[in-house]
Amino acid sequence: MYVHKAGLQIDLRGQLAALSIAAVVILIGVPLWWRTTETYRAWLPVSQIQELANLQLQLSADVEVVFARGTVTPEQQKKVPLTLTQDDEHVVDEDTALRYRYETRYRTATIMEEDALNQPTAAEADLSLHTLSESPCGSLVVYVIPESSSLLPEDVDVYVGQRRTALLRIGAQTRVGRTLEQLLSHLEPRVKQVLQVMSFSHTDITAALSDRVRLSPGNKESIADSMRAFKSSPGYEITFSLLNPDPKSHRLHWDIEGAVQTYIQPLLRKLAPLANFSIDSQTLYYAMLGVNPRFDSSRSAYTLNSDSLAHVINPVEARLGSNAASSNPVLNFLLYVPDAHHSPLHINDHKKQEVPSNAFHSPRWGGIMVYNVNDFYGPEAAFPVDINIDMAKVMGVFLAQLRLLLGVQSSAPPPRFLVAPCSSAGIADWELDRLMWSRSVENIATATTTITSLAQLLDQIGNIVINDNIAQQVSSAVTSLQLAVAELESGNLRFALQYSKEAILASERAFFDPSLLHLLYFPDDQKFAIYIPLFLPMCVPILLSLLKIVSDARQRRREKHAKAD
C-alpha cells in the first residue's frame, strides 16, 4: 500500500515537472525567442505610396497675352483685361494621366511697352521688354503686334526671343467686324502653338515619362531625342580630352581653361538649378581612333564613313580613365588631331557627304571632333610643329553637342516661326524652362517608380529588415513627391524641380541601402537547418511527457466510468 502511494506521488511530481517545463517553454521561451529573432520593420507610408503609383500630373502654365496698339478696336478694349483657363487632358496608360492647364491673361500694352515695341528690330524689342519686367520661371508673355509692324519679316508671323517673350503678328482682317470673344478664339490656337514651342508639349512630357510608360513608336523624333540625352542626375562630370596620336609631328597647345570659362561656364551657370557640374581636362599622347581611315583620291583626303564611327569610341574609351569616386554620369568630349600620315581627315555622313563640323556625337556618351592641322605643315617645317588650336571653333561644336546631350532640344520650329539665335549663355530662358518642365516630370516619374518598386519588394519578402533610416528616406521621398506634384499643379516650376530632385535622391538612397540585402537571400530551408538541431532535442521529451499525461488522464477517466458502472 505504501509503495503504491509512493509511486503515485513520484508520477504526480513527474507530470507537474513536465507541465511546468512545457508552460515555461510556451509562455516564456517561445515569446522570448519570437521577440528576439523577429525582423525589425519600421512603419512605411504604404497608402501614400499606393496613391503615388496611380500618377495624376497637372502642369499649369501662365501665359500673358498683351495687345499692342492697333490690334484691338476701342470696343474690344473695354472688355480687356480678362482671364481664361483651358484644360487639356491626356490618358497615357492605366496608371498615368496628364492634365495641362493654360491660364491666359489678356491685357493691353502699357506706354513703356509700346515704346519698346517701336524698336527697329525684334531682337532690340525683346531686350527692351526684358529690361521693363522679367517674367517668372515657367511663364510666358506674348505680345500681339499689328500687321503693319516692321519688327518681323513678311514671311514670319511669330518671333521667339531669348527670354520668355514672343511677338505674334495679327492680320488686320482678323479684328475687323469681330467681337473680342471671336478674336480670342482665333488667337487661342496660335498662342497654344507658341506655348508648346517655348514651354512644354505633350510629346516632350510623354518622353520624360519613359521610365514609367512605354513610348509609342509613332513619334520617332521624340524617341530619338529622349534616347540621345542623358537621364536626369543630381550631377554630371564633363571631361575634355585632347588626343595627339603623333607628338613627333606636332606640338599642340590648347587654352582649355580659358575656353571653358568663356564658352562652357555661362551655360553651366544657367543650368545650375538642374544639376551640379564638374569639369576636368587631359591630354592623351599616342591615342589612336582604332579605325583605319580610307584615302579618297578624288579629294586627296582621308575619310571616315558613318558606318565606321561606332567602332571609334571603344578603343579610345579605354584610354580615357574613369572617376571611381563619383557615380555621376560622364560626358566625354574628345578633340582628335590626326597624325601627319592621315591628314586631312574628314567625316562623311550616311549620304557620303562631308560633315561641315567634322564631328559626331554618341548618345549618352559624348562627342568627338576631328581637327585637321595639315595646313601648318610647310615645305620647310621643322618637326614637331607648334600648333595653337582655335578654341572658338572647337568650343562652338562642343557647346552644340553639350546642349543635345543635356536635353536642350533644338528641333525645327513650326512654319512662319523665327527663333532668335543663342546668346553668349548658350541657352535661352525659355529653353531652360522647357528643360526644367521635362526634368521635373522625369524626376517625379523615376522617383515614383523607385519608391513603388521598393514598397512591393518589402511587401513580398518579409525577411528584409526595414530600419529607421530607410523608413525616414522613404517618408522623405513621399513628402517631396507630394510637394513636387503640388508645385507643378500650382505652376511653380522652380520649386517643383527642387522637390523632385530631393525625391529622387531620397528614393534612391532608400532603394540602394546596403542593409536591405542582409536577409534578402535567406530562404526558409536555411531557417529549418538552424533551428531544428536546437529545438528538436528539447521539444521531443516535453512532447512525449505531455502525451503520457494525456494518456494517463484518459486511462483514469475510463477507470472511473468502469467503477461507476
TrEMBL record:
Coiled coil: none annotated. InterPro entries: PtdIno-glycan_biosynth_class_S (IPR019540). GO terms for cellular component: GPI-anchor transamidase complex. GO terms for biological process: attachment of GPI anchor to protein; GPI anchor biosynthetic process. Keywords: Endoplasmic reticulum, Glycoprotein, GPI-anchor biosynthesis, Membrane, Transmembrane, Transmembrane helix. Pathway: Glycolipid biosynthesis; glycosylphosphatidylinositol-anchor biosynthesis. Its main location: endoplasmic reticulum. The keyword Transmembrane helix applies. The chain crosses the membrane at residues 12-34, 528-550. It is a multi-pass membrane protein. It is found in: Endoplasmic reticulum membrane. The keyword Transmembrane helix applies. Belongs to the PIGS family. PANTHER family: GPI TRANSAMIDASE COMPONENT PIG-S (PTHR21072:SF13). This is Phosphatidylinositol glycan anchor biosynthesis, class S. It comes from Sparus aurata (Gilthead sea bream).
